Amino acid sequence: MFAGIDVAAERHVLARLDDTGVPIGRPTPFAEDAGGYRLLLDALGPPPALVVIEATGHYWKNLYATLAAAGHDVVLLNPIIARRFQEAQLERTKTDAVDASALARLGFEKRPVPTRLHDAASEALRELVRHRDRLRQDFDDRVRQLHRLIDLGFPEFTRHVKGLDTMLATALIAECPTAEIFARTDPRRLARLRYDGRHKVGLDRAERFVAAAKRSVGQHRGPVYEMQARHVCQDLDLWRRRLKEIEADIEGLLDAHEIGRLLTSIDGIGPHSAARIIAAVGDPARFRSAGAFAAYVGVVPGLRQSGKRTPARAPTTFGNAKLRRALWMTVLAAVRINPWLKAFHDRLRDAGKPPKLALIAAMRKLLHAVYSVAKSRNPFVISTEQAQAA
């Protein structure tokens, strides 16, 4: 049997085809609960059926677990592929039943390979990395709010700190949220403030803040700005502690992960970069080649050729953009501290290649090293050719 399921939050739709491609009954809706899942398994009958599901948000996860446990082959499909298939069929109607039928038809005609999910450790790393990203986004949002409040209430403050996201800045603002409060604060009391639990603000720095506050153009801002600034600083302190806890949890999980631990043997790939790779792909060795892994990330250029146009290679929009962005800073560090990668990058730059092209090529080279480590299950060792190039 071939089946397609249109996934939603509370109500899914199942469509079925027999082994000749003939529809079995009409598309059947079922609920996201125990009763609905019993109805689904009864409709599919004895395993294995090939069930095609769009990977829509997180709604497919319980379905996948139930179907896989029952012995069915489940295909998680990129929504772009499903949409292109329907467009090729010249389908003009879009309903849940039509979408489910199209997924079943795609399974019958294309026979896609069943999807194998990551192991439990990789899935835990994925959840923690995503949670950290959400917390980091919330933290950055609060910093932007604090910037607005300081720009209005004490614009000169930013000239005396490295950034409003630092513990020094939030400790001072929580103590004195506006220029008016800063101006009437005794510098000696401010100097004794410990901003990170250990270091004090210091008298010289405190006197500079108080002197700037007395001349500030934002002294007219009142209690409303004071309340907002204190609340934002409290939020930043809480988010900072949570980020530190989650980063420690990520490192702990990575130490227990066979491949993740090995990836850190590559100079330039630290615990968080390795965790992001594992969170995105699980085991890099599951790809058929290092080139396929690099293509998944999106650092393999596509060939552009049409008619009499001169063939040219150019970057494509396909690939895992989130992982590609996360690895960008990793590559910037790696081309400085990794000898063989630095030699490769410098050779491209000396040959006249643009800086960004050289960095993209270095990213692809680094992904090949990641694939090699995952495939061999051994720490990274520089080959003779790489050592000579370095």
List the topology elements:
Layout: E1 2-6, E2 11-17, E3 28-31, H1 34-44, E4 50-54, H2 61-69, E5 73-77, H3 79-88, H4 96-110, H5 120-153, H6 167-175, H7 179-183, H8 187-191, H9 203-214, H10 223-255, H11 258-263, H12 271-281, H13 290-297, E6 302-304, E7 312-314, H14 321-337, H15 339-350, H16 355-376, H17 384-389
Parallel strand pairs: 1-4, 4-5
Antiparallel strand pairs: 1-2, 2-3, 6-7
Organism: Amaricoccus macauensis
Protein name: Transposase
Domain Transposase IS110-like N-terminal: 3-155
- State mean pLDDT (0 to 100 scale): 91
The domain tally reads 3
- So what's the oligomer here? single chain
Taking Cα atoms only, what radius of gyration do you get, to the nearest Å?
Answer: 28 Å
Q: Fraction of residues in helices?
A: 55-70%
Elements, N to C (H/E): EEEHEHEHHHHHHHHHHHEEHHHH
Ranges where pLDDT stays below 50 over 5 or more residues in a row are none
Query: Largest beta sheet, briefly?
Result: 5 strands, mixed
Task: Give the amount of beta strand, in percent.
Answer: 5-15%
Please provide the count of β strands.
7
Global geometry: globular
Largest sheet: spatial strand order = 3-2-1-4-5
Number of helices: 17
Q: How far is the N terminus from the C terminus?
A: 56 Å
Counting helices, strands and paired strands, the structural category is alpha/beta
